[in-house]
Amino acid sequence: MCGIVGYVGKKEKKEILVDGLRELEYRGYDSAGIAIIDSRGLHSYKAVGKLVNLEEKSKEFSSKEFGVAIGHTRWATHGKPNELNAHPHLGKNSFVVHNGIIENYTILKDELKLEGFEFLSQTDTEVIVHLFEKNTINSLNKFEAFKSTISLLEGAYATLLITNDEPDSIFFAKNGSPMLIGFNGDDIYFASSDTAIIGKATSVYYLEDGEYGYAKDGKVTLFNSDGEQEFRTKPLSSNKLSAQKDGYRFFMEKEIYEQASVVSDTMMGRVLDETIKFEEIDDNFFNDINCIKICACGTSYHSALVSSYLFERVAKIRCEVEIASEFRYKEPLLTKDTLFITISQSGETADTLEALKMAKKAGLKSLAICNVDNSSIVRESDISLLTRAGVEKGVASTKAFATQTLLLWMLVLYTAERKDTISKDSLKDEIEALRKCSNALKVDNWLHDKIHRLSKRYLHGHGFFFIGRDIFFPLALEGALKLKEISYLHAEGYPAGEMKHGPIALADSELFTVALMPKNLLFDKIKSNVEELSARDTTILAISPEEFELADDYIKTRCSSHVMLEFFEMMVVTQLLALEISIRLGNDVDMPRNLAKSVTVE
Ligand code: AGP
């Protein structure tokens, strides 16, 4: 979720860029850079870490005359966070910044290298600027060269390019990643979200996918596949915080809605038509692995539990899951044929980090599933797979859990293919299901409104049971944790088959049971468990594609073809339920009492 800022005009450009990038810090980043072209030529500054490092490097520079300027905060997807990989990337006399993932960059990069172009970075972005400069050789003008360049890119991009060959223009293109254009008199601004230009631009145009063009002489010329297009701007809001929340009431609510889009980032370049690809993993990495042990805490522990069912069922590999704080002190038996996986949104959870160090000391191979590149757990691991969820500001994790679970499902399929435990047809079916996840995660207004209305009935009582079977048991744990964290009401997640072994003693009309009842997995079994509870007068909230006549409340889910699509759809329902109950109780959804976003102490 990189941040982009651009400007063409006579104002001082460094401050416009740095101020704009600072407003995008909430998107998370590990390096930043700016590039400016004015009458004195090309100027560029880049720094790893926070913006203050970039400001320190560029403190002697300013550009108060007419010129073009672009800036970028990088959230690493290809290549480690370092200065070489920071944007803007330079060709001979052009700069480019980019947000998204160029899926065909390796092919383009190889072709350009064969033609003598030299690359400095490991990024996908750098191909854009070299491709542009190659295209200028045979193009009518610089814009035609830019247009040819964009036509060759596959994947998601929001990109700005400036060149000393045309120092009064900024070229732009948008496809799959956000970009907008701001206006104020002859000044023209670009940004990945409007918080960067609030107070500068007075009107704004939000680019659509497939739109591209250039800004020159105080005017924007816009094109799409049908040619040049007129466009209408609208007034720009003045409230930065609500802009960062994009109009949602809380960051957690925004992040629930973001799940449908971030999972596309998680899969990009990895889920191909007939296989799963992880550039980060060497082909022989799994050769001597016979067992998987996963260590995590909290929500990350729940995604680990989900994957344990899939690793054993689909990849036929033993998979054990441990809570990190328990693992550290149990004197675990570790064998070198075990792959040690840690899962962490922050990459800084102390118990998980220390567990990882124990496993490494015992000589195990390690793999991190993490949302923050260059974090302690990423740096400590042999290899890391980034979830690409973007910054998660809500303390109660949502999109991190969704992307962790998705990435683990992808890793299961990757492992199964290498261990030859899945047929090509089955793998294609799984890939088809993966590609439907974004749709399964979409929140429709009808569903959210129904959960809002229904939540008023669940503000009291002596507690909640969330029950499920198989992979819906960890989802029950996660749904209970979400509710506990932000509503402060007592909730427990339980395997549905366990109720008769004691917990059912709590059953009465004041006990709320949220039953996860997927159509594609043990439906009859879970149905009979819920009937046992209903017979004891428990208040039942059934979440299922199948109507359940004994339910006091019922949330109908789509009858998806694949159990994981049912999983993601029910996950959204439990997240929204916790959100709406918490809001009714007047709690601080994003910063619940007693909790921290990252538990960096024991
Ligand atoms: C999730 O809603 C919680 N905030 C918490 O359980 C969290 O998942 C846990 O602290 C682990 O954090 P990590 O994923 O950053 O390691």
Strand content: 15-25%
Helix content: 25-40%
Report the strand count.
Answer: 25
The CATH class of the largest domain turns out to be Alpha Beta
Describe this structure in words.
With 602 residues, the chain is α/β, with parallel strands linked by helices. It has 3 domains: 3-242, Glutamine Phosphoribosylpyrophosphate, subunit 1, domain 1 (4-Layer Sandwich), CATH 3.60.20; 245-439, Rossmann fold, CATH 3.40.50.10490; 443-595, Rossmann fold, CATH 3.40.50.10490. It has 18 helices and 25 strands. It has an 8-stranded antiparallel beta sheet with strand order 3-2-4-1-10-9-11-15, covered by helices on one side. A 7-stranded antiparallel beta sheet has the order 5-6-7-8-12-13-14, covered by helices on one side. Strands 17-16-18-19-20 form a 5-stranded parallel beta sheet, sandwiched between helices. Helix 11 links the parallel strand 19 (365-370) and strand 20 (383-386). Helix 3 (105-114) crosses helix 4 and helix 15 crosses helix 18 (563-584). The two termini are 30 Å apart. The model has no long low-confidence stretch (mean pLDDT 93). The chain binds 2-deoxy-2-amino glucitol-6-phosphate (AGP). 2-deoxy-2-amino glucitol-6-phosphate binds at residues 297-300, 344-346, 349, 352, 395-397, 485, 598-599. 2-deoxy-2-amino glucitol-6-phosphate (AGP) binds at residues 297-300, 344-346, 349, 352, 395-397, 485, 598-599.
